[in-house]
Amino acid sequence: MKKNPLRQGAQRPDNKGEVRIIAGLWRGRKLPVLNAPGLRPTGDRIKETLFNWLMPYIVDARCLDCFAGSGSLGFEALSRRAKRVTFLERESAVAAQLHNNLLRLKCPPQQAQIINQDSLQYLNQAQNTPHFDLVFLDPPFHFNLAEKAIALLHQHNWLSPEALIYVETEKDKPLPVPAGWQLLKEKSTGQVSYRLYRHSGAPV
């Protein structure tokens, strides 16, 4: 669930929405999310398809949930035994709700980290060693955030060799990716296109 980054303080959010964990350790658990203007949920049907694609790769993966919002994708990864998930969320109230939901799930602190920071600012840091095996990119639509995040992930050495990157965008939107990235899966549902790429591990 994502928030339009250009809306600031339009309305005090409240706890009326929820997301459901589909499978794994916390299967069936429902978690409250902030029902604020601009928030967009990732549908269960898309999420189920995505994690079917990821089934061979998710256990022990080091994951990054950019533009985390509700944290739906990161929580699902943890439930399915990802090693660790880092959540990036710029809105303080939304980040606080992510923290509260981790407490509800009794998730061990070493398995999850919430960083209250703009995702692009966070990714604009050079890394000596790669950090992530799996990245979720489901940003607000219409601001070219997916393209910018992809460029920073590649440029600053965030991705392990053979890392997987999930990207959700507006339907039929062209998505330039670095040379050597392999498109593994692609589908469209309603107004959404979603794709899974493999990073080649080639030097920048």
Descriptive account of the structure:
The chain is of the alpha/beta class and 204 residues long. 24% of the residues lie in helices and 28% in strands. It has 5 helices and 9 strands. The strands form 2 sheets. A 7-stranded mixed beta sheet has the order 5-4-3-6-7-9-8, with helices on both faces. The longest helix is centred in the middle third of the chain and has 14 residues, at 92-105. It is globular. The model is unreliable at 1-15 (pLDDT under 50).
Short structural summary:
The chain has 204 residues and is an alpha/beta fold. It is built from 5 helices and 9 strands.
Ordered list of secondary-structure elements with their pairings:
Elements: E1 15-20, E2 30-34, H1 44-54, E3 62-66, H2 72-79, E4 84-88, H3 92-105, E5 112-115, H4 119-123, E6 132-137, H5 145-155, E7 159-170, E8 182-189, E9 192-198
Parallel strand pairs: 3-4, 3-6, 4-5, 6-7
Antiparallel strand pairs: 1-2, 7-9, 8-9
Rg over CA atoms, rounded to whole Å, is 16 Å
Number of helices: 5
Proportion in β-strands: 25-35%
Helix content: 10-25%
Overall pLDDT score: 88
* Head-to-tail CA distance between termini: 31 Å
Q: Sketch the major β-sheet.
A: 7 strands, mixed
Helix/strand order: EEHEHEHEHEHEEE
| Category from helices, strands and their pairing | alpha/beta
Q: In terms of per-residue confidence, which ranges show pLDDT below 50 for 5 or more consecutive residues?
A: 1-15
The global form is: globular
Spatial order of strands in the largest sheet:
5-4-3-6-7-9-8
User: Number of DSSP strands?
Assistant: 9
